[in-house]
Each structure stands twice: as C-alpha cells, then as structure tokens.
Amino acid sequence: MASLLHPEWLPRPQPAQEVVTVREASSPSGKSGSGVVSYRDAARHAMPAVVNIYTAKAVSPQHPLLNDPMFRRFFGDRFEGDEAQRTSSLGSGVIVSADGYIVTNNHVVESAEEIQVALADGRTAEAKLIGTDPETDLAVIRVELSNLPTIAFADDSKIEIGDVVLAIGNPFGVGQTVTMGIVSATKRTQLGINTFENFIQTDAAINPGNSGGALIDTRGDLLGINTAIYSRTGGSLGIGFAIPASSVKEVMEAIIKDGSVVRGWLGVEPQDVTDELAGSFKLKNARGALVAGVVRGSPADQAGLRPGDIVLAIDKDEVRDTSSMLNLIAALRPDQKVVLRLFREGREILLPVRIGKRPSFRQPS
C-alpha cells in the first residue's frame, strides 16, 4: 500500500541534529584523511536549508446529542462556546530561495490555520501559505527572515538507478535526521498517490515526518521532495517516493508567480490499451490511450473525439499510456492548438483540437 506521510502529532523535541556517516569500501564521495568514505560534506551543505514544519488547526467540539431537540430543551446551549480543540501535525520543508520561499508537501499544510517553521539553526517563524497544488501534492510557504540558507536544484534527468542519495527530514518528530540509500527506480507512475506522477523511488529510510523533506545527491543538491512511502505498518520498508526536482521547480515557480498552476485540458476519460483491447481494435500492438468517455462541451467534444478512439500521439509526442497522455496534455497551454493522431475504425487519422484550461482538482484529463 502506497501512502502519504501523514504523521501523528508528537511533542516537539529539543533541537537536535543527527548525521549518518557512511563507511564503504569505495564511493565517488570524498575521503577523509583516515581514508573513511563519508557523505558529511553533502549533508552539511544541505541540512541548514531543510526545516521542520509544525501546523495546527482548530476543531470545534461536537457532542452527538447537540442536534437532538429534546436534549437541547433540557440542557440548552451550555455546551456551545466550549473552547475549540486543536489538532497538530508535523512535517518538513526545503528553503529554495533567500527571499524565504519554502517548498513542502500539500498534505503537510493542508487545512492548517497556523504554520510554524523551525530552522536548523534554532530560529523559528510563522509562515504564510503562498499556494498549493494538490495534483502534485506540493505547496509553497514563506517566512520573513533574513540570512536564510538555501539549496540548489540538481539536474534530475542525469540520475541513474544505483546512485547514492540522502534523505533529510524530521521523522516522528525526533529532530533533523539524515538517512542514506540509492535510487531504486525513476519515472514511477500509476501508483494512485497523485494525479501527476513521475516519482524517484529510493530505499533511503523515509518515515512519517519526512514529508516535504529533501532528497539530495552526494553534492548536497536537491534531487526531489520526499512525499510518500510504501508501507504495511506506517514505517519505512525501504520503498519511498520523491517528486523530482524539475517538477518541483516548475510547480514552485508557477505558484510564486500566479498563486496556482495552470494546466492544459482535453476532457476525456482515458484508459490504458491492453493486449486484449489492442487485438479487439485491430491495433498491431498495445500503445496509446483509449478514449473511454468524452466530457460534454469539453475541447475533446468540440473537436469531435469519440469514445473508442485511441490517442497515439499529440503533435509529435508519442502517447505510451494514459499517464503519458495526461502529462503531455497538462504541459500544454490553454488555447494552444495541437493535432491528435488517432486510431479510429482500423485506420489512423489526424484531428486538430484547441486545448482548454484544466478545471479544478481531479477532473478528467
């Protein structure tokens, strides 16, 4: 089961920092004078830019009998006005700008009324929510502090399976912690975690409280934002997922500029083409995305797309499956004109369409 890292609230720990020093036979990282291989330089470079995030929201107490007219007749409104209970949670974030912008997960700050940030140097500040993007589970908050440490974005297109990575965050509220692992896989999709998925998978230990924390390379640059784990117990089983730095930067810049992310929209319900479906449609091999439904009045409907069409390409970009189709459409600008290459009734056709603006969260592609 893949799950987001929604942690239970734990008491705030005393400021503490733990760095895992790794001893190996060989590594691309630098060696100390004693010949011990260590990633201490990468950790020291990145740790100051990783923050702890504490959020709180009020929950009004609600007695189950308050809506009973007979109960209210005898007891009146004596239960009303009780002080609202407060629920709290914690997570992590990464300072990406000297202006105070911090990237974290949407589920870390979702519905929060108060957001407090604790820096590695001991400073604390109240943060303002700049914007969120639930479809990638990213959010941007900001603090008004000076002399802030920042982290550089790595080129995640160059990472390969087996590369060493470090995860930095505040697991279980014990304090800032660094763990080490490797890149287990890249471009993980169809996990059912977010609408738009392109995860880096790692076996670096990631636990509740690490949400929004940094996944860094051996130079200390940001490879991704830790967001989810595969777990049957709620703890780390060696399968964690991070949103790649390129996606983080794109979403962050859009939120800072416009307060939200604007994406393209076609208006279809896509379905993966299996071998059986390909055979029934007389398609030579399983590829593309089958149009299972068309939203009435959508750009797809206006362009003449039909249920049963198979989208093979958008302009010159091949459509491998529903995930690639969703990402290709989302990357387009509203009002942009594109040509769809479709497989319809045993032959390929070209269909021009004007892309629309994607509606609210979790709408058809």
Written overview of the protein:
This is Do family serine endopeptidase. Keywords: Hydrolase, Protease, Repeat, Serine protease, Signal. Its EC number is 3.4.21.107. Belongs to the peptidase S1C family. This protein has 365 residues and is an alpha+beta fold. The protein has a domain at 264-357: Pdz3 Domain (Roll). 14% of the residues lie in helices and 35% in strands. Strand 21 and strand 22 (347-354) form a beta hairpin. The longest helix has 14 residues, at 245-258. The protein is globular, with a radius of gyration of 24 Å. The two termini are 25 Å apart. The model is unreliable at 6-28 (pLDDT under 50).
How many strands, what sense, and barrel or not for the largest sheet?
7 strands, antiparallel
What is the number of E strands? 23
Backbone structural class: alpha+beta
Question: What global shape is seen?
Answer: globular
| Terminus-to-terminus distance | 25 Å
Overall pLDDT, averaged?
Answer: 83
Give the % helix: 10-25%
Instruction: Enter the CATH topology name of the domain at 264-357.
Output: Pdz3 Domain
Order of helices and strands: EEHEHEEHEEEEEEEEEEHEEHEHEEHEEE
Features:
single chain; 365 residues; alpha+beta; Pdz3 Domain; 7-stranded antiparallel β-sheet
Question: What's the helix and strand layout?
Answer:
Blueprint: E1 2-4, E2 17-18, H1 40-46, E3 50-59, H2 69-75, E4 85-95, E5 101-105, H3 106-109, E6 114-118, E7 124-126, E8 128-133, E9 138-142, E10 164-169, E11 176-188, E12 199-202, E13 214-216, E14 222-230, E15 240-244, H4 245-258, E16 264-265, E17 268-272, H5 275-280, E18 289-294, H6 299-303, E19 310-314, E20 317-318, H7 322-330, E21 337-344, E22 347-354, E23 356-357
Parallel strand pairs: 2-11
Antiparallel strand pairs: 1-14, 3-4, 3-6, 4-5, 5-9, 6-7, 8-9, 10-11, 10-13, 11-12, 12-15, 13-14, 14-15, 16-23, 17-18, 18-19, 19-20, 19-21, 21-22
